[in-house]
Amino acid sequence: MSTGDSNQAIRITAEDLADVQVAAATPQPFKPADPEGRSYGSITDASGTDPVTESSKGSILLQGWFYLGAAGLIGSLAGWAICEPGFVDGQGGFHWGNFFIVPVVVAIMTLGFGIAESLVERSAQKALIRTALALPLGGVLGFVFYWIANFVFAVGVTICSQLGVTTYRNPAFWITRAVAWTVFGVAGGVVYGIIGQSFKKAKFGVLGGMLGSALGGILFDPISMGTGGGAPSRAFGFALFGVATGIMMGIVESALKDRWFYVTAGPLAGKQFILYKQQTSIGSDQQADIYLFKDPSILPRHARIEANGTRMRMRALGPVFVSGTPVSDRVLLDGDLVQIGRYAFRYKEKTR
Prior knowledge:
Distance between the termini: 73 Å
Number of helices: 7
Shape: elongated
Radius of gyration: 30 Å
Strand order of the largest sheet: 2-1-11-10-7-8
Helix content: 40-55%
Mean pLDDT: 83
Structural class: alpha+beta
Number of strands: 11
């Protein structure tokens, strides 16, 4: 390049261009936006390597066995408290408390199961909708299954009498009550499945409810003997019935699941979403199956998961990352890390 007078034209020769060296631009990774500055990896992460995420320790409050057990406890005690003032021990005739106590306990307990998951997921809309469904369903099924349970109990007592069992202090009588009370567990599981819009959820709920209510039933009479009968024994017995039913529903549901999302980061860290449905919606809409809140970057209907035979397919409507790579349509594999905004999920499948 010539360097003469400043008024002269600047000339660039081929030799000048050959000597020019351009620094290579360093590509900047694109990272999903996060309101709180968490890092969820980038599209430049090495293939097959999970992006860096900030995992949070899950709260016990988000475990199904815990919140269903708490709902069963609160619901059964509320039902007992409503009817106990009208309950009369050891007298004939009609007493409204004696007649309504078991159906009301079952109805309010099933109501608790219906709205517990909605409250855990922070969806007020779901809670209101499920309350509107669970209260009449629980009430109707509470009375229907009450009569069925009475019939089962009467048959069991007749068999016990023929075997020479004439007192509730005999363990055979406890087993009879336990068998009859399994009917109440069926009511809880049916309502749980109906409002969850899943036959499989209802099936797991029924199985867990039967196990839990049987446990409550077999311990009801020993508790009555230990407390001397009356209101305290009923309160303790129904409380045990409610908490055992809820806990067993949660345990059975977790034990028998086959495909699920486990939240590893975000406000719901530690919760699992079992993928029951043919299509599972994900987004910031409170009525989405997986409701993701407190993140303005998440769309009302951000993604959906579709059951495709034995596989689950992720279809993204907004930014979705699987192991750090942006995807729009992808079959999920066991162990995949899915990121949506500030949330991270580990997709899991039960080994077949």
